[in-house]
Amino acid sequence: MGKAEVRGDSLERRTYYFIINPAAKNAGSLKVWEKTKETLDREGISYSYAFTEYKGHGVALAREFLQSTGDAILVAVGGDGTIHEVANGAAGFPGVRIAYIPAGSGNDFARGEGIDSRPLQALSGLLHSNKVRPIDLGFYKTSSGKGYLLNSLGIGLDAAITEAVNQSRMKHYFNKLGAGKIIYLAYFLWKWMTYKPGEMEVEIDDESHSFTNTWLVNVSNHPYFGGGIKISPNAKPDDGVFHILVIHNIPRLKLLLMFSTVLWGGHLKLRGVDSFEGRTIRVTSSFEVPIQADGENVGAGEAFIEMKHHMVKLAVQGE
Length: 319
Description:
Elements: E1 6-7, E2 16-20, H1 28-42, E3 47-51, H2 57-69, E4 73-78, H3 80-90, E5 97-102, H4 108-113, H5 119-127, E6 131-142, E7 145-149, E8 152-156, H6 157-167, H7 170-176, H8 180-194, E9 198-204, E10 207-220, E11 224-225, E12 229-230, E13 242-248, H9 252-258, E14 273-278, E15 280-285, E16 290-293, E17 296-300, E18 303-316
Parallel strand pairs: 2-3, 2-4, 4-5, 5-18
Antiparallel strand pairs: 1-6, 6-7, 6-18, 8-10, 8-16, 9-10, 9-15, 10-13, 11-12, 13-14, 15-18, 16-17
């Protein structure tokens, strides 16, 4: 089934609002924004912009802007966390479209959507196309709050790694050296050695599944997570279903070897890797398990996730 694309408004009547995360990729996003702004000014494009100042600020900025206009293209300039916040701010405003200029370290959303990894090319594709495509979001609720996911929600080992990386003071220095993936690898190895799997109950569309020695549960709306790991190769952000992956009862050494097969999707065929499809998921556990959504830590313990089919519109790059 192909991607459903529809025509949006005329190019001349557009209202652009850029939300920039100045901390993304160790402030590398600021250089991206400077070049973006130069292009916009040179082409005489009308736009507004704002910089995020704290976690969650992108949500507030998007909602504040949309309450006054209700009809615009919100463009995230940053990493997956930035587009995550912009999408959360856009949810509930049917006239808005979201777009993305990748300027982060992971850029999984761009990778899954086929958005050009070169920021100026991504901008050019956005400015010279009036196509939009409806995409799905996942509504999630945890003990710490609720929100929407674009890429995936992970419970267990991947969330523990994400939490450690996000809290690490070394992340800043590795990103500055252009070696951000090294810090992820280092914390993966650390958590691989120290993380203790446990029992999890996964309810998918009212059907319950019990797992012991569970390393992680991943609920995917997109193929990629963790900066290019193709955890759910068959996931599509517009088909109305989640792809759920449960990794359990795998010895520690075999788990390490298993991750080498993720690059080509071989992990789906391994014993101890179960995959499902569903629209409503509830995960409970016998221990305080960490939770991440789109690379942001969103709580611990129980999680509820529900599919919201075609909840936002994505401005699609031109051919």
